[in-house]
Amino acid sequence: MTTTTQPESTASRPPSRLSKIWKSSSIIFDSPIGMVGLAIVVFWVGMAVLSLFWTPHDPNEQYFRDQRRSAYIMTYLPWVDLEDYDEITRPDPRFLLGTDKTGRDILSRVMAGGQVVLLKTRIPLPTDDVRRQDEISALSRFLDRIAPEEWDEFVIPGGVAIWGVLGSLVVGTTFGLLAGYKGGWTEQIVMQIMDALVAFPRIVLYIVVIAALGQGDLVIIIAITVTGAPGIARLSRSLALDIKTRDYIRAAETRGEGLFYIMFREILPNARGPLLVDAMLRVGYAIFTIGTLGFLGLGLQPPEPDWGSMVNDGRELIFSQPNIVIWPAVAISTLVIGLNLFADGVREELSRYQK
Amino acid sequence: MAEEKSKKGKPVLEVKDLAVAYKIRGGEVEAVQNVSFDLHSGESIGIVGESGCGKSTVAWAILNFLGDNGYVKKGSVLFQGEELVGKEGEELRKIRGNSIAMVYQDPMQALNPSLTLGTQMKEVLTVHRGMSDEEASERCIKMLDRVYMPDPGNVLMRYPHQISGGQQQRVVIAMALLTNPALLVMDEPTTALDVTVEAAVLDLIAELRREFDTAIMYISHNLGVVARVCNFVNVMYAGEMVERAPVEDIFARPQHPYTQGLIRCVPKLGADKASAQLYPIRGRVPPPNDRPSGCVYGPRCDYVQDRCLQERPQVRILPNGNAVRCHFSEEIDPSEWIPSEDIKLKPSPGDVTKNEAIMTVKGLKKYYDVPGNSLKAVFGLESPKQVKAVEDATFRVPRGSTLGIVGESGCGKSTLIKTLIGLEETTDGEAEFIGHDITTALDERSNDLIQELQMVFQNPDSTMNPSYTVVQQIGRPMKRFKTVPNDQIRGEVIKLLESMRLGENYLDRLPRQLSGGEKQRVGIARALASRPELVLCDEPVSALDVSVQAAILNLLIDIQRELGTTMIFIAHDLSVVRFFSDNIAVMYLGQIMEIGPAEAIYRPAYHPYTEALLSAVPIPDPSVTQKRIRLEGTVPSALNPPSGCRFHTRCPRRALMPDGGKACETEIPPWREFENGHRIFCHLPKDTLESFDPVISLASDAEAVAAD
Ligand SMILES: Nc1ncnc2c1ncn2[C@@H]1O[C@H](COP(=O)(O)OP(=O)(O)OP(=O)(O)O)[C@@H](O)[C@H]1O
Ligand code: SF4
Ligand code: SF4
Ligand SMILES: [Mg+2]
User: Fold this and answer.
1) Whether pLDDT at B571 is above 80
2) For a pocket test of ligand 1, which of B18, B57, B258, B290 has the largest count of ligand atoms closer than 8 A to its C-beta?
């Protein structure tokens, strides 16, 4: 028995980790729909990244009070009345998409609008506490680029939508896997709570959360987490219900593994495909949510531009100056559509791949 | 043979040079090539071969159900003289009419769960044959009666889920026969059924062939089943037909090395591991797009020569009329075959049944509460009903031995071992294992105990976690129980893999890169990784092909002989259990009916249930005669098991009791003790039990008896 024969297979060396990751992610290239979605998403992420370093104009500068802008108008567009929004906001070669009613460049703002959603989250710091500020100064150097000058807030990478969805993933999978795996009373209680959350009208829920915790990026993350968690919990529960019947879970149990090991090490890895697809869709919903909140005036904090607030700002001029509203709205909807297409592509390919 | 051929006339089905391909991503695979055979009415041809050899594909090609991506690439299928290939839709339906019927493995595939059986059966006649409703239902009842369905009139009003699996299959067969088909195609129709039910269905099929003069094409991986119902056998390997011969010749004089190999893989009923050995065929069936040039069987053949690798053998008709696809079949004498060195097993340690007990179980009970669905029960006013899954199990397992557990599905085999390992809580009774009380649930058990008691599972596809590599899965128990220091785990896993006859290159594979047999080996390695004293095996070979099954059984035997591991082994195949076990327990409806040394179980004295089980086993040898005992009715519900002896509702031997067996109905039977700890749970006195004839006898014995 010392001689080793390989009775049933002739496959060669296992592929390296990198090529494995490449191979499993390359399935997306087989789906045209997924590719279109990916392209749209990459476009907006690219725009947001670009805007960290360069935008045509400063997104927060009000050019219509700007001497240069006034001079520009007076020199080249002498017939324009400086108080006439209609004329001021009109696109021209310098402001390709025009400006909003306070004279800020829409193109720059649309580009930068992706930042808070996708790239960075601002956590306000207590300004009076000097020591805390000192502590983060090392980080501040690192984050110098994306942080505003005066350090009254702390910026972490990953946008509000991303953190919100991650939050709901963590909360949702924990409760969902627990309910699905344990069953019985645990399941009853957890799912009742989740159902109660779902039954609560969303907007009211946001308003409650925001009223209780005040405004800010973190609060919006919490709001997204709370509203997203029940859906993810349901999905992960149903996945766990299926996966827990497999023999490898019995093997883990007869090995005396603990509850969390079984939930997160044995069940979760096999549920990640559908959860990933769901999370991608949820980033889309979160962007909508942020837009909605922005529109209600409960959104992300100024001064950073955010698409929802931009739509809200332009609302009064929607008939005379539709481009103020249109561009951020286009940004929101295309990004959401892109994420949906991408998620669809991934889902389709995953199910094909598993066959 | 020649004169028989001439009287048969025109065949019902003529398949010539059939090739079938499936289109897949980036090309196509030719699943079946060069298959030719004839089928006459009243004949039944068996198609055997390992999984993936293209058996089902042949059937689907004949029925033109190849799915979206399959098509007949070459060849012809003549049905009653008319070409089926290339015909489509209405035209095909017209030729085929209702004269070809198919029965699948899963009866529920053919039955609509939301219609009554009567509606579904009658529809065949009223829609296709334009019969009136009454006429149709009369015919249905007649047909159900023909397939020995009890109370057919009542069955017509039931829904599919209201009858048992075996009855469902009978309904499907009856439905297929309603239109009086000329050809009946059956794809593993009994694979999902219990032996006793299978035996009844097989009897039925054999009878139908004789009486209806139907031509039957019977697909199965089980040689024993084919031996029972077919008169011709077609052996398929890797999409090709490699041998075609009458059933007697296939078993007595197999010509093709593959057929010989298949026969050597299955244990003969009565053989045991001490005196016989199984010889797995090395390697495995190549996937369709990776077939070797030359003879497809070349890489696995023991007789391979240069010519085989260069020239693909064609089907040749031998002087006796049998067809075989091998260059050298005349020169090959299976009786002179010598097994290759690497399948020699370690020597047997001798009789282990006298060793001290490592596990003793006394009066173990496991009841499940099932909530009733009456209104009362919903409000908790009714005490919940109980399923008595295991009742009063008492046995001991000597160190280093194997206890086999047999019984039909639902008899509580799996529940028994799940209770022992702690996956289910014990309801009552005592169980002790190396000084630990094992009636406790898993989370109350100490790590020491958990480590000593491990389990191997049935389904190779779910035994491994798809997300982790082989080394991670086998290494995990070592890490958890700290049996091996962390930095040596990899080395230890390699050693373990080597004793599973898997190489180091398997370490980083994911489960989807392994075959079923390989996954099962990894599952065994994982169970052994914590160096347990006792391993519980729940049907570890049932889902595998015969050659893989032989390899896994050999492996388990070798491990047991090397490490002295004790095993409890569940299987529904009685030949396998007999082969592998030292002691055997026969269970029926949660009750152990008979327990004792393996050889004592297979010869009289029998428990009446064991006797019936043995007479139902399909034996891959047409020269063996079996006593024909068929059980009436179905296994009663465990919710409400029969009083007294649980077997009394079906017991064929009850008549031997005085007073028609009143005692069997009312009184719990006593244990009848025989030598060597052989015990039978029956009211019949010892000498009556001993007087039963042996169930199985070789043809030579039978002739001797006849000559007297
Ligand atoms: N729809 C399909 N598409 C592609 N390949 C297929 C398809 N169906 C079957 N095959 C391949 O064709 C070959 C023959 O399959 P088939 O199902 O006929 O085998 P089988 O002998 O019936 O096996 P089993 O005993 O497991 O039922 C296999 O390699 C299988 O993977
Ligand atoms: S042709 Fe050669 S390799 Fe093929 S079965 Fe015959 S002897 Fe074996
Ligand atoms: S006790 Fe009676 S019913 Fe039970 S097996 Fe014996 S004879 Fe049959
Ligand atoms: Mg098949």
Assistant:
1) yes
2) B57
The span from the CA of B72 to the CA of B27, in Å, is 15
Q: What is the mean pLDDT of residues A18-25?
A: 68
Q: How far is A275 from chain B (nearest CA, A)?
A: 15
Residue A16, chain B, CB below 8 Å: the answer is no
Instruction: With cut-offs at 50, 70 and 90, classify the pLDDT of residue B259.
Output: very high
**Measuring CA to CA, which residue among B121, B326, B134, B162 is closest to residue B244?**
B326
Residue of the nearest CA to atom 1 in ligand 2?
Answer: B326
Distances (CA, A) of B706 to B455, B615, B621, B701: 49, 20, 20, 9
pLDDT digits (tens, 9 = 90+) for B648-667: 998 999 888 888 778 889 89
Residue for token pair 């097994």: B339
Q: Report pLDDT digits (tens) over B66-119.
A: 877 888 888 889 988 888 887 777 777 777 767 888 888 888 888 888 888 989
- Contact call for residues A14 and B508 (beta carbons, < 8 A): yes
Q: Which two tokens stand for residue B365?
A: 């009970």
A76 CB neighbour count, 10 Å cutoff: 11
Task: Write down the pLDDT at residue A305.
Answer: 80
Looking at chain A, which residue has its C-alpha nearest residue B341?
A1
- Predicted pLDDT at B381: 66
Q: Does B450 touch chain A (CB under 8 A)?
A: yes
Q: Which residues of B touch A4 (CB under 8 A)?
A: 498, 501-504
ipTM of this predicted complex? 0.81
Q: Which parts of chain A are beta strand (E)?
A: 120-124, 153-157
Q: How far apart are CA B99 and CA A137, in angstroms?
A: 86
User: Does the pLDDT of residue A2 top 70, yes or no?
Assistant: no
Q: How far apart are CA A323 and CA B666, in angstroms?
A: 90
Q: Which residues contact A260 (CB under 8 A, 6 or more apart)?
A: none
Ligand 1 centroid vs B55 CA: distance in angstroms?
A: 8
Distance, in Å, from the CA atom of B141 to the CA atom of B175, rounded to the nearest integer, reads: 11
- The position carrying tokens 């890489």 is B299
The residue whose two tokens read 């039955």 is B111
- Give mean pLDDT, residues A325-352: 85
Distance of CA A251 to the CA centre of its chain: 38
Chain A partners of B508 at a C-beta cutoff of 8 Å?
A: 14
Evaluate if residue A147 carries a pLDDT over 50.
Answer: no
Q: Which of A71-85, A215-229, B367-381 has the lowest mean pLDDT?
A: A71-85
Contact residues on chain A for B528, CB-CB shorter than 8 A? none
- Six token digits for residue B250: 């296939």
Q: Are B63 and B84 in contact (CB under 8 A)?
A: no
d(CA B484, CA B478): 6
Nearest CA owner, ligand 2 atom 3: B298
Amino acid at B14: E
For chain B positions 518-577, those within 8 Å of chain A (CB to CB) are 518, 523, 526-527, 530, 548, 551, 558
Encoded amino acid at A237, one letter: R
What's the per-residue H, E or C state across B366-410?
EEEEECCCCHHHHCCCCCCEEEEEEEEEEEEEECCCEEEEECCCC
B179 lines ligand 1 (CB under 6 A): no
pTM greater than 0.95 (yes/no): no
Residue in B680, B683, B689, B692 to alter for ligand 3 test, most ligand atoms within 8 A of Cβ: B683
Comparing A74-83, A321-330, B543-552, which segment has the lowest mean pLDDT? A74-83
CA B64 to chain centre: 28
Cα gap B426→B364, rounded to integer Å: 7
Write out residues with Cβ below 6 Å of ligand 2. B 257, 295, 297-298, 301, 303-304, 308, 313, 326-328
**pLDDT at position B535, please?**
95
- What angle separates helix A307-314 from helix A322-354, to the nearest 10 degrees? 150
